[in-house]
């Protein structure tokens, strides 16, 4: 039986595949549509997802300094693959050493207003995944409206169980 930490590693494999698909979707937007604000919004959403991943990794003690702004504006689409690669390497390394005891550990942090918060690492990893799903859905809508090619990034279609019947 797989451990919960194994599941988080598996789910991150899904996210890595989804990141590749999202980059492909952004690249599929016709050149003449790339000056529209909707295209930049889609690129900025992808940048935000990457920055959020980096910020949570930092908060989990896996970085020496926090990343830049949560909502960096006017990121170039060509900068995204390098950003994705960097964050994926860091998360793969972090998740590679994760065990179920680590998931139960609580992370405490202060809000910008001075309030204190505490969450189990498991909740944080769940939130980070859900956050990416949410924004990836927004990107799909924007890319489709711009005439780009959209792809499904749903977990259920990525990790299909064995088929029980023989009908194609």
List keywords for this structure.
6 helices, mainly alpha, single chain, 2 strands, 6% strand, two-stranded antiparallel sheet, Four Helix Bundle (Hemerythrin (Met), subunit A), 168 residues
Q: What is shown here, in short?
A:
By secondary structure, the protein is mainly alpha-helical. It has helices spanning 4-28, 37-59, 80-96, 100-104, 121-145, 155-158; strands at residues 106-110, 116-120. The longest helix has 25 residues, at 4-28.
Give a written overview of the molecule.
The protein is mainly alpha-helical and 168 residues long. It has a single domain, classed as Up-down Bundle (Four Helix Bundle (Hemerythrin (Met), subunit A)). It is 59% helix and 6% strand. It has 6 helices and 2 strands; from the N terminus they run H-H-H-H-E-E-H-H. It has helices spanning 4-28, 37-59, 80-96, 100-104, 121-145, 155-158, and strands at residues 106-110, 116-120. Strands 1-2 form a two-stranded antiparallel ribbon. A hairpin with a 5-residue loop joins strand 1 (106-110) and strand 2 (116-120). Helix 1 runs antiparallel to helix 3 (80-96), helix 1 runs parallel beside helix 5 (121-145) and helix 2 packs antiparallel against helix 5. It is globular and about 50 Å long. The two termini are 30 Å apart.
């Amino acid at each position: 039986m797989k451990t919960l930490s194994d599941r988080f590693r598996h789910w991150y494999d899904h996210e890595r595949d989804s990141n590749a698909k999202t980059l492909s979707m952004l690249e599929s937007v016709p050149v003449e549509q790339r000056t529209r604000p909707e295209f930049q919004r889609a690129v900025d959403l992808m940048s935000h997802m990457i920055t959020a991943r980096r910020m949570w990794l930092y908060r989990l003690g896996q970085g020496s300094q926090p990343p830049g702004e949560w909502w960096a504006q006017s990121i170039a689409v060509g900068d995204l693959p390098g950003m994705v690669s960097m964050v994926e390497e860091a998360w793969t390394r972090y998740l590679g050493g994760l065990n179920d005891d680590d998931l139960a550990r609580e992370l405490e942090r202060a809000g910008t207003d001075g309030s204190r918060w505490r969450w189990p690492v498991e909740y944080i990893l769940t939130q980070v995944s859900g956050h990416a799903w949410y924004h990836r859905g927004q990107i799909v809508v924007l890319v489709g409206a711009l005439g780009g090619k959209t792809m499904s990034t749903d977990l259920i279609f990525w990790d299909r169980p064995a088929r029980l019947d023989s009908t194609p």
